[in-house]
Design brief:
A hairpin with a 2-residue loop joins β6 and β7 (78-79). This protein has one helix at residues 41-52, and strands spanning 3-7, 14-15, 18-19, 23-26, 64-67, 74-75, 78-79, 83-89, 92-95. The two termini are 26 Å apart. It has a 3-stranded mixed beta sheet with strand order 1-8-9, with no helix packed on it. It has a two-stranded antiparallel sheet with strand order 2-3. Strands 4-5 form a two-stranded parallel ribbon. It has 103 residues and is mostly beta strands.
Length: 103
């Protein structure tokens, strides 16, 4: 996966809205199962973002997104999209790039 935009407010893998996890798991309902609450919460998230610096945006992290959702990008259990967005939802953190498959 070339780019994972992560807009969670409290995840150990999120740095400046980029997911730094090597393997991400998404379940049938598009919920991110890889989210780990950051010790120190949202305040610690803010400090991590500041510490990363501006040159962080030039770096790249290739990740594998394992997916079991009914989605057009699901290719044998792996997301084939070049870019996804993950955001906080009422009941967990979800992949907002899910595209239902056509029947």
């Amino acid at each position: 996966m070339k780019e994972i935009i992560c807009e969670t407010s409290n995840c150990e893998h999120n740095v400046k809205c980029r997911c730094m996890a090597g393997i991400i798991s998404v379940n049938e309902s598009a919920k991110c199962l890889s989210r780990i609450k950051r010790e120190g919460g949202a305040l610690a998230q803010s400090f991590a973002d500041v510490e990363a610096g501006e040159d962080f945006f030039g770096s790249r992290n290739d990740s594998i997104v394992q997916c079991s959702a009914d989605c057009a990008f699901n290719s044998n259990g792996v997301c084939s999209s070049d870019k996804i967005t993950v955001k906080d939802a009422v009941f967990g953190t979800k992949c907002k790039s899910k595209v239902p498959t056509k029947e």
